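Following up on my earlier message about phosphoenolpyruvate. Here are the inputs again, as you asked, copied directly from the submission form:
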Amino acid sequence: MSKKLIIANWKLNPTTLKDAQKLAGSISLKAKNKVVLCPPTIYLSQIDYPNLGAQDCFWADKGSHTGQTSPAQLKDLGIKYCIVGHSEKREVGDTDEMVNAKVRACLAQKIIPVLCVGFGTTVEQDDLEVTDVLRAQLNINLKGVDPSKVVVAYEPVWAISKGNPYQTRAADADHAEKMAIFIKTKFKAGKVIYGASVNVNNAKGFLSQPNIDGLLTGGVSLMAKDFNTIINL
Ligand code: PEP
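Thanks, got it. Here's what our run produced:
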């Protein structure tokens, strides 16, 4: 199997820099797959790992924008990836247009955007209904953007865990594969990865799909032993 991209979204964890450094230090540097760690922004400059990503950014590079972090600042720290459009950001107000502005701002700084789509999907929807949701999002999120430079993460929002991916249900791997094919054929995304309730037991099923280029992991990325297993599949 060729190298896949495994992204760790630590969200608002851990609570101390010491624990963040300890967690990063326990992640294999010689994994079979390419690994990107996305710790909280406040720790980014103090985590030593080859590939780091941010969990979000603002669209302007400087100015009167209290509390924001710009792609230019991320670039200055050597950050290579940035998650944008995560459902937990969309939930608190990020619109499709704002997500588009963030994607563009990342690309202007040569930071690879990891564009999350799947907000608004439900477990009851069939494949066609899900593609309608994704199409509406991607039409705006990728406006004016070279999609080949973007990693699109298909994250069915209903499947995202609240921290423990062993207590929730992931989407089926064949459904995720169909969505990856849709995103690649209709939107020409450079890579498509799957995220939501990935764990040691289901990761291989997603990674074996030819059109799924990797995983966006949340809860399991905080479990060093399990995460090390997944990055070496
Ligand atoms: C996420 O929210 O991006 C995610 C993948 O979370 P989890 O793996 O915990 O469902």
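One observation from looking it over: The pocket of phosphoenolpyruvate is lined by residues 9, 155, 160-161, 165, 195-198, 216-220 (CB under 6 Å). Hope that helps, and feel free to reply on this thread.
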